[in-house]
């Protein structure tokens, strides 16, 4: 009785090991879908797939928000594909802001490396605001799918790194969703209670039409 059971167990164990990959480096040449990128064949994986050097370079903050985000998500860092993690660098010049936005695909943990950053998020159920000015070494969490923001709270440049619970957390910035596309002005007015002049001004600034 014991030997047949042992034989069956060994077959199950060997088949499980044969079907499980240690990791799934993104194959950018293959189709991708809702589940993520296809896996590169293990024999074609190199160390360069598992290393990302872009976070050493400060982002360009010469823009309307005076800030820059340098992501190391699965579309740029193939090694994190399928692992449930990713990271990004945030550079904020004096007066810089990462506007209200959401990450529909993952939660975020932010650590301040330099300067001070006012950060907060708004709950979905009660619209409660959680707000804190973070100093060097402080860490704050932003739950998945909730509106949140970061603002440079000092007179010098600020630097932070954000880790995510997804290789592709996604991003939607409220200002750009409303004013950087062709959503008709009258609909923006109706759904935001702003007046038409304000909406048209913001569309002009952010590149929207209609």
UniProtKB/TrEMBL annotation:
Source organism superkingdom: Eukaryota
GO CC entries: apoplast
A molecular function GO annotation: manganese ion binding
Subcellular localization(s) per the UniProt record: Secreted, Extracellular space, Apoplast
InterPro entries, sorted: Cupin_1 (IPR006045), Germin (IPR001929), Germin_Mn-BS (IPR019780), RmlC-like_jellyroll (IPR014710), RmlC_Cupin_sf (IPR011051)
Disulphide bridges: 24-39
Residues annotated as binding Mn(2+): 101, 103, 108, 148
Keyword set, alphabetical order: Apoplast, Disulfide bond, Manganese, Metal-binding, Secreted, Signal
Family per record: Belongs to the germin family.
PANTHER family in alphabetical order: GERMIN-LIKE PROTEIN SUBFAMILY 3 MEMBER 3
Name this polypeptide is given: Germin-like protein
Record organism: Liquidambar formosana (Formosan gum)
């Amino acid at each position: 009785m014991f030997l047949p059971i042992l034989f069956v167990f060994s077959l199950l164990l060997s088949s499980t090991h044969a079907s499980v990959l240690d990791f799934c480096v993104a194959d950018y040449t293959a189709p991708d879908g809702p589940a993520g990128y296809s896996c590169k064949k293990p024999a074609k994986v190199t160390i360069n797939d598992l290393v990302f050097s872009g976070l050493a370079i400060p982002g360009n903050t010469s823009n309307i928000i005076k800030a820059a985000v340098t992501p190391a998500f699965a579309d740029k860092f193939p090694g994190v594909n399928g692992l449930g993690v990713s990271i990004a660098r945030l550079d904020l010049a004096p007066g810089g802001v990462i506007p209200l936005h959401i990450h529909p695909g993952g939660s975020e943990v932010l650590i301040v490396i330099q300067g001070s950053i006012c950060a907060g998020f708004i709950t979905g159920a009660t619209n409660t605001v959680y707000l804190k000015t973070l100093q060097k070494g402080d860490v704050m969490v932003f739950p998945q799918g909730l509106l949140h923001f970061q603002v440079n709270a000092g007179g010098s440049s600020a630097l932070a790194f954000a880790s995510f619970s997804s290789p592709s957390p996604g991003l939607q910035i409220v200002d750009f969703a409303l004013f950087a596309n062709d959503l008709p002005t009258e609909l923006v007015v109706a759904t935001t209670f702003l007046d038409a002049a304000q909406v048209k001004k913001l569309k002009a600034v952010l590149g929207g039409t209609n």
